[in-house]
Amino acid sequence: MKKTRTKAFANLVSAVLLLIFEVWAYWQTLGFKQPKAAKYVKPATFPQVMIIGMGIFTLVLLVQSCIKVFRGMKATDTDNAPAETLNPLKSRGVAAAFFVIALCIVYSLLFENLGYVLVSAAISVVIMVLIGKRDAKTVVLVSVLVPLVMWFVFYKFLKVNIPMGVLQFLRDLVDKF
Fold first, then answer.
1. CA distance 31 to 13
2. pLDDT digits (tens, 9 = 90+) for 34-82
3. CA–CA separation, 9 vs 7, rounded Å?
């Protein structure tokens, strides 16, 4: 089998593309506005930590893939198997992944106007239904409470100003206490 049709080669290409994305994403965080009230945790801190963590794992994948592709693999190596297709018409999992990517784009477009809590709750409901959660009470409670608690922690304790959009009255209410 040709090396370019193996899972190892697909991992190599994926690692290179991920590294390009991670460098771009890190570069984007350097332009975040730095509020004067944020002394220790700045808006860019969490994304930068996550990007660096992703970068470490991507580098590991890149090194492993390079070793397997360029040094050769045993016939029994699982990465020597044919790579699966990324055609969303043939793979339900790939179609779901593309749908989640589309949801992330929608999330980023609606984030500023509707606010973190509302958009996160709506996207959470969609993703939970997509992965098979059917208990309506659990879906609604988790989708609403998790973004609310996360917003409260970031806003009150970490002093990160997250857009609230139409739920601005919650921020005003919390600021009174």
1. 28
2. 877 777 788 888 999 999 999 999 999 999 999 988 888 787 777 777 7
3. 5
State which amino acid sits at residue 129: V
Between CA 48 and CA 44 the distance in angstroms is 6
Residue 43 phi/psi, 5° resolution? -55, -30
Is residue 115 left, alpha or beta, with left meaning phi > 0 and alpha meaning psi from -120 to 50? Answer: left
Helix (H, G, I), strand (E, B) or coil at 134: coil
Closest CA relative to residue 83, chosen from 14, 22, 21: 14
The domain locations on the chain are 1-83, 85-177
Residues 129, 117: contact at Cβ < 8 Å? no
pLDDT tens digit string along 71-113?
A: 887 877 777 777 777 666 777 777 888 888 899 999 999 998 9
| CB 88 within 8 Å of CB 98 | yes
- Determine the Cα–Cα distance for residues 38 and 139; give it in Å rounded to an integer: 34
Conformational region of residue 72, where left means phi above 0, alpha means psi within -120 to 50, and beta covers everything else = left
